[in-house]
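hey can u check if this looks right to u? its 379 residues, i copy pasted from the old doc so theres a chance i mangled smth
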Amino acid sequence: MKVILPVGLCFVATGTSAVAASVRVEPFGTTQGGAAVSRTVMTNDRGMRVAIIDRGATLTMMEVPDRQGRRRNVVLSLPDVTAFERTQRRWGGIVGRYAGRIADARFTLDGRVYSLTPGRNGVTLHGGPDGFDSRMWHAGTRREAGSSAAIFRLTSPAGDQGFPGGLSVEVTYRLMDRANELRIEYHATTTAPTVFNPTNHMFLNLGGADGGTIDAHRLRLFASRYVETDARKIPTGRLAPVAGTPLDFRRARPVAASRAASHPLLASSGGFDHAYLLRNSPTARPVPVAVVEDPQSGRRMAIDSTEPAVVFNSGNGFDGTETGSEGVAYARYAGLALETQHLPDAPNRPSFASTVLRPGRSFRSMTVYRFSTMQRRHM
């Protein structure tokens, strides 16, 4: 079989037959501007399948088995390019330059104030309306010992979204051959001092992307503090203890977002939409972030990351107006997001771990998603 590589990237492959057996690139449609969108599909030795489109470097599928061996896609996604262009959400895309909120659409770096594109309440969210999740990325594939990789590259010029510095970004989706494990690896360099804080914006439902709500999912978060915010969801600077609040997932328990939504800490969002501090600074190697289980299907997902924080969102904004790739409308709490990243508004909060990237340095980050099954009903 022939290995298909997009024009413009030429990666050296080893074990060609293995690449051909586990990786394929196929058409996914065309944007309104006439750009051809492709989809990279990787399959490992255990039958796990992962798909990513080059528009937004967007993860559109993770197909994993339940306790009976039945495989279902667990990533909420949209059926075609038109739906992705129309949506106001960022399904499975790479968000940037800055994941999360920046207060008053500005920040100061080295004594200079930079103005960004304001959104609701004058806040910049996920870099602004023209984020990395809506860009066309340059895509390629590479075969390495023990894994297949889909690599996506993007150049963000100086001044893009108001941020300084020309940014070169590479995101690698790596599917391990012999374990149901996906790694998302980030690498970036800049031509001038800037701030950078990427993440993947996927929502998951371990019962299947058309599996109803995530209320019965059991969640454990390795975090004892969350970020207190004001009415605009901007950090106040206080890192509050989760103890005694509905945000406490230090021991696994059902998400139950629909029941918890009336609590004062959740009422403004109608569910969970909070940043948790995992540790004070990034780590060299991924360490535990969260474990999610679906008792009904038996699917289990463990997340490790080098990032110091995670944002947990319980799909509060879904309202049934968008139909997913499985043909089912996504209602409230249809999926949950666990976005590994630095804290929101860190450029304006010196006490938070820095997101400054300078010339001559490289930004590197990794988040790992490991899937397995459980026979027991609880963790």
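Residues 16-373 form a domain with the Beta-galactosidase; Chain A, domain 5 fold (CATH 2.70.98.10).
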